[in-house]
Amino acid sequence: MQVRLRADKHRKHSTKQADTYSNANCFAKIKEGFADSIPDAEEQIKAQENVSYSNTGRIAVGNRDSVRESGGITRSWSRKKGWPNVSLSPDAIEGYEKDPPKVRQILDAGLALTKQNLGYTYGSADPANGGMDCSGFIYYLLKQNGFPDVPRDSSQQYVWVRKAGNLYAVLSRKEDSFEFDDLKPGDLLFWRGTYNIDRDPPITHTMIYLGREKRTNKRVMIGSSDGRTYDGKQRWGVSVFDFKMPPPPKSGDAKISPVFVGYGRIPA
């Protein structure tokens, strides 16, 4: 009995030590494994006044005013976690002044939403809720800018574009494929497999193409996401994001895998 009590006491002490070690080092451990996903803690603390840590080691960021930087970039801290949401000024986008007036109207309105510190809120299509989901962003933006027939969910938005004969299918996983030769600012972008859902067609994600950013010459897009990247860092909410092809699924991986389906003009 005495031996058992000592063993139990030792086990409890070891567990307490392990918990203390885990809490003190969880952020470093997670950051080590997900360097592209988790922001640098020291930089975050220096950059903000309201920072708290969750048990997962992620950073929860309080509301904060947007910060204007060089290159036409505006950063506003997400309500949820991670790196700040990003906006761009129109003159930071290559060839923006040559886009049709209606396209500029839509992109201007979308970029204005990225400055409102909106989070990702599943099921929402109204910024008054503090955030929107991906198709809710498209629905609200187009509804407010002269497209009363835009459907609410991403699958039906895909059908809407395809029925109008405006869809360009993409089978390649390469960003320099000829299949992107017709891609233009203001086009809707469609993915499947970003999460598991039973719908037909199985489109699960949508955004709007902005063009190429002058600073990097990389393609960028605008919309609402719960973890896509801009400048290689994850953002949550309404923001500018990198437009890049998802990596191919690992061999034998049974999990769902994001696939870019295509793009298309907004039906007139």
Topology of helices and strands:
Blueprint: H1 2-33, H2 41-47, E1 51-53, E2 59-61, E3 67-68, E4 73-76, E5 85-88, H3 101-113, E6 119-120, E7 131-132, H4 134-143, H5 154-163, E8 167-169, E9 188-192, E10 203-212, E11 219-230, E12 233-242, E13 259-264
Parallel strand pairs: 6-7
Antiparallel strand pairs: 1-2, 3-4, 4-5, 8-13, 9-10, 9-13, 10-11, 11-12
Strand order of the largest sheet: 8-13-9-10-11-12
The amount of beta strand, in percent, is: 15-25%
Helix content: 25-40%
Radius of gyration equals 22 Å
**CATH classification, class level of the largest domain:** Alpha Beta
Pairing-aware structural class of the strands and helices? alpha+beta
Report the order of strands and helices: HHEEEEEHEEHHEEEEEE
The CATH H-level homologous superfamily of the largest domain: endopeptidase domain like (from Nostoc punctiforme)
Sheet of most strands: 6 strands, antiparallel
- At CATH level 3, the topology of the largest domain is endopeptidase fold (from Nostoc punctiforme)
Q: How does the overall form come out from the CA principal axes? A: globular
| Second-tier CATH architecture of the largest domain | Alpha-Beta Complex
- End-to-end distance, in Å? 81 Å
Mean pLDDT: 76
Number of strands: 13
